[in-house]
Fold this sequence. Notes:
Dna Ligase, domain 1, 4-stranded parallel beta sheet, 30% helix
Amino acid sequence: MSESEPVLLIIGSGLKLYREYLVSSIHRCARAAGIGLVLLNNLKPTWQQAYFDEIIHTDVFDADEMLASAREVAGRRRIAGLMCWDEPVVLAAGELAAELGVPGLSVDGVRGCRDKNRTRTVLTAEGLLQPGYALTTGLGEARAAAARIGYPVVLKPRAMGASIGVVFAADESEVDAAFGVAMGAATVDQSRYGGGAIVEGYVSGPEISIDAAVHKGEYLPMFVARKETGDQPYFEEVGHVVDAGDPLLHDPALMDVLARAHRALGVADGITHSEVRLTDRGPLIIEINGRLGGDLIPFLGRTATGLDPGEILFSVATGHRPVVTPSRHAVAGIRFGYPDHDCLVHAVEVPEDAPGLVLASPMIDPGTTLRLPPGGYLARHSFVVCEAGDRETCGLRLDAAAALVRIDADPVDPPEPGTAFEMPAGLLDVDEHEGVSA
Length: 438
């Protein structure tokens, strides 16, 4: 990599299991365009070495340290674009993109995506369908907000992702416990928006997510994922299904709501992951995230539609309008394995062969303790991915593959009352632990 060659700056690689397919595509695009790749990463590199021209070991979760490292690179290299798909880092990365003058969500856009309270405020002012809501920091505030909004309500951390700490409260008797769970999760978030809980009116209806590119303000949907969640009062995500022929991709009302929301938030260029409830009053945006979806949703999208999210991300990050026309018409889904109770896991075995099986993997190391809500979140031990020609067949194949997962575990006692919110010690990467970010 010569000093005159432009470079693409990537903030955090993520887990090999979750993100290598993206990095591989970005590497291919960069080589074809004559652009180098520089990675800022929180752990020393292993698998990343095959794809990046330079890797700088820095704490990307410390905004000051990350920005100092990025500015050092910008002082000696021409930055052609910037990418980040890690939720805790997207805010600082988006502000850095504006500072460097490269395509990005815009400062207003990335702040509006990261701060759920700001999202609600902006979308309500735009006249879009939204629930009643209030940002609270104390139990008294939460009780008063719930009474004012009307039951049932949902309590959630101000800035967490993956439905962590999101709790349903049917009536006044359930608010105190729900607030404790939401605030417990909020304390994990060390960003500037951490530490608060939002109380909002509950809305019923199927929940979906939409991954899309935004180019110079134009909203370009890639694929829709139908979300499967666990039982109330918690909303843990247990699976997703992407259908290349999903009619929602061409639903005028849904697309109008999404385009208006992105304009109102000031999202200019980048990739977003929007979560929407399909209510009897129309589409209601739950949140918009300034990054690609987690849970391998982009991988499902590629499997089902043929669209390569890495290529699309590269196009947007370097200022080009991406092509979002599907080349495949299939259905792909993922199912996560959860234990029935808190347990200490000794081993996880996943199937190597099953009808339509695309990918299967354990998600934890032996010796990991998994705790279900409210004692912990993301208590996943494995996943399976299957594809088929239609949704019904895909669902049956996911059922069959998930039934082949074997887990050797012993039950453990529940955490003591008042114990801090727990996450699994780490997701299993082939080479290393890189935390729980997906």
